[in-house]
Amino acid sequence: MTSTDRSAARAVGALRSTRQRRAVGEAIASFDDFRSAQEIHELLGRRGETVGLATVYRTLQRLADAGEIDRLLTEDGEAIYRACSRTHHHHLVCRTCGRTVEVEGPTVERWTRSIAADHGYEQVSHTLEIFGTCGSCAGPDGHAARPTGTKH
Predict the structure, then answer these.
(1) Which CATH number is correct for 1-86, 1.10.10.10, 1.10.10.60, 3.40.50.620, 3.40.50.1440?
(2) Is the Cβ–Cβ distance between 62 and 17 less than 8 Å?
(3) I want to staple 23 with a disulfide (CB 3.0 to 4.6 A). Which of 29, 49, 83, 87 is the partner?
C-alpha cells in the first residue's frame, strides 16, 4: 500500500467514521486502477462487507470533493475512482482493460495558462484524461485484441 493509498483510507476517517465508510476507504486503498462505484460495491460484497450502494456513492463523492481520490468520467460518461498522488497530473487510461498511468503535462500546463491569459481569464483550472489502448491489449496490428472491459 502506498502513502497515497493510505490517505484515502485516512480521509474516510475525517468524515464521521462508520464501519461502512472505513470499508470503502480500505477497498479504495486495495487497488491501483480506476473503478466504478458498482465495482467497489461488488468488491465490498466479496469481502463480506455489507455496505449499501448509496453509501458507496456518497463516500466516493465526499472523498473526491476533498481531493483525497481522483474521479474521472469514462468516454461513456461513467464516474470511476482511484486513490492517486497529491500532485497535479493527468491520466492515460486504457479503454479496454482500464490500466491507468499518471502523467504530467508541462506542455498542457503552459498552453492552459497561455490560452487563459490571451482571453483575460485568471484562476484557471482544467482536467485532461487521455483514453487509448495499452500495449498489452493491442494486437500485433495495433487493434484491440481483448473484448472491452476485461482486466489483465
Answers:
(1) 1.10.10.10
(2) no
(3) 49
Cβ 82 vs Cβ 32: under 8 Å: yes
Superfamily of domain 88-152: Ferric-uptake regulator, C-terminal dimerisarion domain (3.30.1490.190)
Per-residue model confidence as pLDDT tens digits over 62-76 = 988 888 888 988 888
**C-alpha closest to that of 149 among 96, 86, 90:** 96
pTM over 0.85: no
